[in-house]
Automatic annotation (TrEMBL):
Residues 7-99 form the Polysaccharide chain length determinant N-terminal domain. The chain crosses the membrane at residues 430-454. The lineage of its organism: Bacteria, Pseudomonadati, Pseudomonadota, Alphaproteobacteria, Hyphomicrobiales. The keyword Cell membrane applies. This is Polysaccharide chain length determinant N-terminal domain-containing protein. It is a multi-pass membrane protein. PANTHER family: FERRIC ENTEROBACTIN TRANSPORT PROTEIN FEPE, TYROSINE-PROTEIN KINASE. One of its GO terms (cellular component) is plasma membrane. GO terms for molecular function: protein tyrosine kinase activity. Residues 287-335 form a coiled coil. The keyword Iron does not apply. It holds the Pfam family Wzz.
Amino acid sequence: MATAAPDDIDIGAIWRSLKRAMPKLVLLSLLTGALTYAVLSQFPPRYTSEAQIQVVAPRDANGADRSAESVASRLDREAINTHLRSLLSPDLALQIIAEEKLDKNPEFNDAIGTPGLLQRIKNAVGLGGTDSESEQDRVLKAFNSRLDVYSPRESRVIGIRFTSSDPALAAEVANRIAEAYRTSLATRSLSETDEVQQALQPKIDKLMNEVSDSEAAVEKFRAKADIFKGGPNNTGLNQQQLGDLNTELTRAQAARSEADARAQSVREMVRAGNAESLPDVQRSPLIQNLVQQRVRVERQLSELSATLLPAHPRMRQLRADLQGLERQIKSEVGKIVEGIEKGASIAASREASVRRSLEQVKKETAGTGEDEVQLRQLEAVARSKRAELERLQARYESNRIAADRRAVPVEAQIVSVARPTSVPSFPKPLPYAILVSLATLLFGIAIVVTKALFTAARGSTAEHEVFEPAVAELATGELAPVLARDASRVHVVKSVADLAYQLAAHPQDIGGFRALMTGSSEQMDIGTEGIDLAKAMSDAGSDVIVLDWAPEGHGLAEALGIVPRPGLNELLQGKATFEAVVTRIPASGAHFIAAGAPVHDRDIVFDPDRLNLTLDALDTAYDQILVVGRTDVARALFEAIQGRFDAGIIVSEARRRPATVQGGGTFLGFDVTDIELFRLERSKTTEIARERLARVGAKGRLEARVS
């Protein structure tokens, strides 16, 4: 089961309020729509045509693209706004007025024609202008009121809209504005071009003389300082020589380092006795031949040593040959080592020679350093003057071509021409009437919903102040609500119909009318009277709800054949919503909230805030709220909410005076004012019906227990 609070929004109550108000709202919306349609139909139709121009970054006259900075400055938002303001200029408007003779048109000059309905309305409310306006001002004002120039965001397109009662005139004026503005831009550009040409010619002549003088000064100083240039890069001779010597020195240093490394390696191998392992030695054919011979001699010597003695002549000859070969190999290796040493010495000498040459060239270059600096300054001046001259000459030539053709690139290009239309832009009676009708309907629905949500139970704040009970202490020590208005007389009614008539006669535009019904004694069952009263008020056209007030759980639901739970007790405890507890009384349009399950914690259901919130919510949804309960629980409820009821009803026997109404102005033991008191005397017929209803309820409960 969903948890609910006493202040939950009652969707059903809002829907019922809308149902009651919907016929009036629909009628009102239809009337406002019809009135809007009738009023707009009296206005003459107006037609709107639109021409579009695009702001572009024009090329130069010779077809070259402009710089990025120039393009950005011509296409930024400020530039677009400048075009917009120019299109709205009075000079352009007066030009179009003169060309189209709009001052002779009654639409623009109301002094020569009968004013229309809209103009008559403006004149009536003081917005039609003054008689002191000149004809030009009057026509210009009418022209500007029909002209609309705009540019969409993130776009370089400018729209020109013009409105007139003549569709052909609207299109013609829009096109003429676009063409006239484009022509004015072209004329202005031609004038600027002629002015620029006249300003450029003297500058070009002066610069030509200055460039000639600067270049002649450069050549004269170069010849005087003996500073010449050559080579593919047109650099000075000293710089070229320095570059070549630097390259040569690098190569000499590399060669010397390599030769020194070889010589050092050779010396170490010779000292280690591994001279024959040198790469140069192994590459020598002579040494390799000698080595092979030595190998043969050593082999022969080894073979003969097995059969001959060392003193044998053959053995001595072989040993002599071996020694000779060793000496030859050593001599050849020494020559190779000596050659490597000489190569390292030659590399070092070459490096030193190149270094001396480089130092000499540096000294010579340093002597001409000041001349080089001065020469570069002269060359820079000559180059800057030459570049400026070429720039001015190119600009002069492009302007000359444009002037010869009498055509210059224009920033505004027409991309769409205006065409006459047969569909009026104003008025549009049907769409406007539909919109007004819908707006009226929605506004009325909003008012009804807001009133249903926020209207207080007693109406305005003043009403709450009037009905706020003032409690006085009785002799018994109890508190009694004392209200502002004197209503001490008790109305005695003989029938439920009379009571329903009197209750329904109260105004229902300030919220629901609350009534508390109880019996004259604790044992009296008043369920029949409560249900009959609710049915009677419902038949009279009131929205009625009956609250079965029985915290102990024994109420009217079983007698009516209604499921007793969930009910009011669950609603006050936040265990149920209004949708779950509200039901309909059989054979009636009145609603009913059963008592619900017994409550163990009576402080919850007797909490004043919960009770007031619940009753306030019902006030916004129902015309009549009838609370029915036994005397003891009714008195506790009355005390808990400080008597915030509009009426108190006591059901009594015709022959017995009720103890709950003790003279005028006393109800349930409390002195009350501003609460109407009724005493419903039960007739014999009513007693019989009540007993029959009780028997039916008891029989139903018995059958339920048996089943």
